[in-house]
Design goal:
148 residues; elongated; 73% helix; mainly alpha
Length: 148
């Protein structure tokens, strides 16, 4: 009986170690995706004289692009920083909301120094709304449907 108990315990510890390794790899992947996506955002917003389609449907379509780029960034950050149960360490959620909003504001402001680019309050608002919506939305989905 003792042999069976120790065998089961060893198997459990081995499977738990495997799960922890997968979790750590996942966190690293989403860390690098977050960094890469932030670099892509800055790179695109640094392209001089970038033209955007002039289609209006009550709002400009480029606002959807701004919203979407920052929404994706927030999703990557959530998947990087949450634990196995979809929770942040205490206080981190607010810090990442603040940092994401500051990044969005700085990204839009730096376009003042890019030839052919301008600062736009509407674009900045789309960035901030995309990031905060991504943080809130994916946190809800993660906690509700994906967390253990």
């Amino acid at each position: 009986m003792l042999f069976l108990q120790s065998s089961v315990q060893y198997t459990y510890q081995k499977s738990q170690k495997s799960i922890d390794m997968c979790y750590t790899k996942r966190k690293l992947i989403f860390l690098w995706l977050s960094i890469l996506w932030a670099i892509i955002i800055i790179s695109i917003s640094s392209i001089p004289h970038l033209s955007t389609p002039r289609i209006h449907i009550g709002f400009r379509l480029d606002h959807i692009a701004h919203f979407g780029m920052y929404f994706v960034l927030a999703v990557f950050i959530i998947l990087w920083k949450t634990d196995k149960h979809g929770s942040f360490e205490k206080g981190q959620y607010a810090v990442f909301i603040l940092l994401g909003c500051v990044f969005a504001i700085v990204d839009e402001t730096h376009q003042l120094w890019i030839p052919g680019r301008t600062f736009s309050w509407q674009d900045m608002l789309s960035n901030v709304l995309g990031f905060t919506s991504g943080m809130a939305g994916i946190t809800y989905v993660y906690k509700r449907y994906l967390a253990n």
